[in-house]
Amino acid sequence: MSLRINDTAPDFTAETTQGPITFHEWIGDNYAVLFSHPKDFTPVCTTELGAAATLEQQFANRGVKIIGLSVDKVDDHSKWAQDIKDVSGAEVNFPVIADHDLSVVKLYDMLPAEAGDTCEGRTPANNAPVRTVFVIGPDKKIKLTLAYPMTTGRNFDEILRVVDSIQLTAKHPVATPANWKQGEDVIIAGSVSNDDAAVKFPGYTTVKPYLRTTQQPK
Fold it and tell me: Is 45 marked active-site?
């Protein structure tokens, strides 16, 4: 099953470093970021979990819960947490899913059904596609997917930026341009007529008939 933007994120139950969860119940009325790893004690992933831990409060300030996943057991995750702290200086206070039976990564189409049902004997290279980010809304719909190669560390500042855009455009009839950052001008949605734009966004700028910009709504 291929997952696309606006699909419902599959629900599941799993063991994590903070005990068992049911995913949709765990998300609740929040946004969520689920990001996956091919194996514990891998170098790039160690830096990524540390980066996420460093930014956890910034995600929380936006009403976003973060959760990791790695194709190994809870005991391995718990041991790995000390290495992550040593490298980044940050405690991993968010849950990390133990997907030792590969059930979640197959449910989310990161590995094929024929991959088997155990992490035993599998290398990071076997699990290379398990490097995906999903941003999921309170409605449990997928808002973003990103897949990374094993040799490229993820940019969590970019994930925060996307969350800011997703939350802003969910509340206002606007879109955000390339490289947009919080506080910069935005694009008025095409669904808003010029007459309505004059009321909603007084003083807006027409760059092209189909490209109108305005200050970021509060």
Answer: yes
